[in-house]
Amino acid sequence: MARTNKDFNNKRNELLERIWDIFIANGYENTTLSYIIQALNISKGAFYHYFSSKEECADAAIEMYVNSWIMELAQRDEKELKADERLKQIILIGIQIASSNNEQNEKINSPSNAIFHQKLMVILIKKSAPLYSEIITQGVKEGVFNVSCPQETAEMILTLSNFYLDADLFKWEEDILRYKVTAFEELLTRVLGAKSNTFNFISNLFKGEL
């Protein structure tokens, strides 16, 4: 039975990798269930053996990729650092991972992938929040942060950074985005009760990239 479950999961993950590529290339809105089945070169019965619908396979593909990104974050997380330095490092690694594939990002940000993009942001926020919450909790214990609800604070920070600062989604102009980033730094500092200038590196990074 264990081997059967392992084979099932391995095959399902293999299909999910291909499904991710299908949605990225073709666009979620443009991709029908029949197209997916044809592109995977499997029968309808085989598809339903692993997935219940187009939406379910999309959610599963996104979750699989987000899990791999979170795993990379966790592997590169230096837990011996103080919380403020550790959070800075995690933010930088997250930005690096997010911007590592420009071609893929352009396709995710295309109008035909609006729903897919939204699903990706929601899962990314939910999956990332526990790590951010852990770091915030550490900071409270060390006295560098002053937060009463670490998990919820982490979720709000991630929602702002992944949604509000998405220039492609909001069509922010470069000069406008600079102000948004500065405001985000100020908010981050106040919400966490951190020392001033703790997060100035974010706007400095954007100035170098924009």
What does this structure look like?
The structure is a single chain. This protein is mainly alpha-helical. The chain has a single domain, classed as Orthogonal Bundle (Tetracycline Repressor, domain 2). Helices cover 78% and strands 0% of the residues. The chain is built from 11 helices and no strands. The protein is globular.
Task: Describe the structure using short key phrases.
Tetracycline Repressor, domain 2, mainly alpha, 210 residues, 0% strand, globular
Write the layout of secondary structure elements.
Blueprint: H1 2-26, H2 33-40, H3 44-50, H4 54-76, H5 83-98, H6 102-108, H7 114-142, H8 150-164, H9 167-170, H10 174-192, H11 200-209
Protein name: TetR/AcrR family transcriptional regulator
InterPro entries: Homeodomain-like_sf, HTH-type_Tx_Regulator, HTH_TetR, TetR/AcrR_C
Domain HTH tetR-type: 9-69
